[in-house]
Amino acid sequence: MRLFLGIELPPAWRRALAQGAEALGRAGVQGRFTLPDNYHLTLVFLGETDRRTEAEAALRQTGGAPFPLRTALPGCFSRKGGDIWWLGVEPAPGLLAVQQRLEEALRASGFSLEERPYRPHITLARKVRSLAGLAPLTAPGLFPALEYRVDRLTLFSSQRVDGVLRYLPLYRVSL
Ligand code: 2AM
């Protein structure tokens, strides 16, 4: 199964993200928009693995205290097949500490993880085409400032359900 560890987002965040994404659509942006049910913040991507039990153990071991999560500016990753547009999340100490502990616990139990630095973001759309370039994404007021107290971490699987990509929570650990 294809697994990753991350943070589920509350309804207020999902609504605000969906409204921003709808505004992008109205501004003529095309692409594969994330389903509002799928909005999440990835902490560590594991990829294809059958080591679900070990991933759950690493999540339990990571533990820690609840921490605040805040949105930052939107941005874009350039990709050959079409860009990824996202809303950034502040790389605050509480978030970075839990992400790092999680990576360490996973590496210690034998997972080989990507080396690239962690860039906290919530993907809004992939394979984006925009005649107006980044202007719709950087339009002022597209997203309100959002804040949320994170009190659990989640192991997700990424799978197709009836042909639709879904991120399904498999296991949760309270902080
Ligand atoms: P993305 O949103 O920037 O694509 C499930 O695929 C989640 O894991 C997505 O949030 C995705 O980030 C993230 N992820 C991190 N590294 C990935 C990789 N190499 N391939 C696919 N998804 C990855």
What does this structure look like?
The structure is a single chain. This protein is α+β, with helices and mostly antiparallel strands and 175 residues long. The protein has one domain: Cyclic phosphodiesterase (Cyclic Phosphodiesterase, Chain: A). It has four helices and nine strands; from the N terminus they run βαββαββαβαβββ. The protein has helices spanning 11-26, 52-62, 93-108, 135-138, and strands spanning 2-8, 30-33, 40-48, 67-77, 83-89, 121-129, 147-150, 152-161, 164-174. The strands form two sheets. A five-stranded antiparallel sheet has the order 2-6-5-4-7, with helices on one face. The protein has a four-stranded antiparallel sheet with strand order 3-1-8-9, covered by helices on one side. It starts with a strand and ends with a strand. It binds adenosine-2'-monophosphate. The site of adenosine-2'-monophosphate has 6 residues, from strand 3.
